[in-house]
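Record 1 of the preview.
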Amino acid sequence: MAKTASKIRFKAKLLQPAEADSWTFLTLPKEVSAKLPSRSMTAVEGTINGFAFRATLQPDGEGSHWLKVEREMSEAAGAKAGDIVVLEIAPAAEEVQLRSVVQRRRHHDHQRKEHRTPSSLSG
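->
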């Protein structure tokens, strides 16, 4: 299936999951999900309130996708649970791991602070 090169712009409300207060999420409108190359996990890059991100959208089981928004990402976007955010997304040029850039950055910073080499790189 060919990937769409054009960016998709839309608004969505940040929601707070009942069991967590360290992150929020949003559900893409169904018409936005329909423009993506896959109904399953889909790697995207774009902006949320102007803050650049790369992430993997997860299927919501109801014909759309959802995006987990870590606290650092929502703070950088100047948004909190209940706010309407403006997103502009497009399928990622390269596959993105399941963790967002923010999560990878946090992991890297933690490793650097611990002065440890990940076991997968040693040996």
